[in-house]
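Comment thread on ticket #2218

A.B. wrote:
> Attaching the input chain for the structure job we discussed in standup.
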Amino acid sequence: MELEDKILKRLNSLYWARKSNEIVKYPPEWYNEQGVYCRDEWTCFSDIGKAFNGKLFTAEEYLEVENRYIACVEDIATSSQCKYLTIGYLEDYNNSGYRYKERIAKKHIHKVLRDMLRDNVFCVLVNLKRNVMIDIGFDYYMHVLCPLEYDVLNRIVEFHKLYLNPRSKV
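C.D. wrote:
> Ran it. Output below, let me know if you need it in another format.
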């Protein structure tokens, strides 16, 4: 069975549906009752130098948030006992050299995550043996499927000053 087929099969399983969460940089208090985020906020690397809520968004601020996302993924992988993540799906917009089915050692995962966060590539990173899948969608919504209990995942996320999306399933 092809890797993409295995991923789709897992995504359709009830186990993974229950373990699905979104991790975001957006504070829960800024979501309205319909689940819409209501604050003017930067959403991508190319927003550096633009003003949001009357304040210039700097490269230093961007890197601080980007580093929190990367450290969060590294901690999720460690807590899930992953030694590597595999590129299970790939759209390489800038010919960055990544390959479908490439195994990325945990100690090198920061590079691919940085490219994902900067919209240079879209990847689905998986470790099917450990039931882990991670991708980063638009506007810094990171989708995480992992075997960690909700409380453990939440502690990791909070440690990195991120949030479990209030719209996520618990």
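A.B. wrote:
> Thanks. Noting for the ticket: The longest helix spans residues 59-79.
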